[in-house]
C-alpha cells in the first residue's frame, strides 16, 4: 500500500510527497480508512510508529475539502514540546492546503499568550493544546468551538498520568456533542478504557504491538554500582561513533550534575529540565533536531515530548520505575524502521525494575561486560547507601565483578 491508495486531495498529497513519505506505517494503514469514514477510534500503538500522521492526514484531508474559516479540529497533548512538534508536522503536511494551525501551551510570557489569543480570534483551523492553557482560553470566552468536527487526544495515557482527567472532561463540556473523537495511547490501562467509553461513540479499536520496542533496537544492559555509572557513560560517549544521543536520568538534579561532568571532559551536551525557561528548552530541542547538538540529557518528560529522527543511542542512566516508561525511552531510537542502540545501567537496587521490564517485553536483555578500566572504581561505603540492607563488610561478588556473565 502507498499513500496514493487513500485518495487524499491533491494539495495534501503534494505535502506528503514533499516530506518524502511514500508508504504508510501499520498504524496509518489501519487507522486512516476508519477516520476517513468518520468513525470514532481508539488506537493503541507504541511510540515511533507514525501515529501522529495516522490522525493528521485524514483530518487535514477533511478540512481541506470543507470551509476553512473556522476551528475544525482540536488536538490535546500532555506537554508543550509534543504540542509544538505536532504543530510542526501540521505545517509540513498542510503546506500546500492553506490549512492553518497554532500550538497553545502555558509557560510563555504575555506576548505568547497574546499571540495565541490572536490566532484563536482568527479562527485558526487546527488547535494543538495542553489542557491547562486551553481551559484558560475557554473560560475567558475568547475561544469558541461551536463548529468543531474533530477531537484528538494524543498520548492519552500520559495525560491521565499527569492528572489531566478532570481538565479533559471540562474541555469536552465546551465541545459539540456531534463530532469525531480519536483517542491515541501508547498503553491501554483500565482508566483509558473508561475514558474512551465516556467520550467515544461506537469506536473502532486498533491495537499495534503494545509494550514492544521496535525490532531495530539493540538493547543492552551493564550491571554496575553507582560510582561506575558516570565513568562508563563518559567512555561510551567519548569512544563511540554515536552522533545523536539521549540520556535519561530519574531526577533533574542528576540531569544537571551529568551536564556539568560531561561538559568538563569536552562532550557537547545540554541538560533539558523544568528549571529552564521555555525559550531555552525550545532552543535546545531545535539544536538537537537539526543535528547541531549531539547529546541531550533529560528526565522522562523528554521521552514522550521529543520526535526526532536519526537518534542512534539512548542511555538509561537510571532504570525507570515504570516498565512502560522504559519502552517510551528506548522508542526514541530506531524510529521509522531504522536501527539504534539502547543501553541501560542497572545497579543492585534496580534488579526488580529490570525483571518487570523483561516480563513486560517477554524477553531478556543482553548483558554486556564492563570495560577493564572501571574495575578499580570502588562502590561508596555501605553506610551511605541507606536502602541497601546488606551487612556493611559483606562483599557483593555479583555487583563488584567488572565482567558479568553474558546473558545466553
UniProtKB/TrEMBL annotation:
Q: Which GO terms describe its cellular component?
A: cytosol
UniProt keyword terms in alphabetical order: ATP-binding, Helicase, Hydrolase, Nucleotide-binding
Q: What are the Helicase C-terminal domain coordinates in residue numbering? A: 216-378
Alphabetically, the GO molecular function entries are: ATP binding; hydrolase activity; nucleic acid binding; RNA helicase activity
Which residues lie within the region annotated Disordered?
376-408
Highest rank taxon of the organism? Bacteria
DEAD-box RNA helicase Q domain ranges (all copies): 1-29
Q: Which InterPro entries match?
A: DEAD/DEAH_box_helicase_dom, DEAD/DEAH_RhlB, DEAD_box_RNA_helicase, Helicase_ATP-bd, Helicase_C-like, P-loop_NTPase, RNA-helicase_DEAD-box_CS, RNA_helicase_DEAD_Q_motif
Q: Which residues form the Helicase ATP-binding domain?
A: 32-206
Q: Name one Pfam family in it.
A: Helicase_C
Q: Motif Q motif residues?
A: 1-29
Which PANTHER family does this chain map to? Answer: ATP-DEPENDENT RNA HELICASE RHLE, ATP-DEPENDENT RNA HELICASE RHLE-RELATED
Q: Which family does it belong to?
A: Belongs to the DEAD box helicase family.
What protein am I looking at? Answer: Superfamily II DNA and RNA helicase
The species this protein belongs to is Mucilaginibacter pineti
Lineage, highest ranks first: Bacteria, Pseudomonadati, Bacteroidota, Sphingobacteriia, Sphingobacteriales
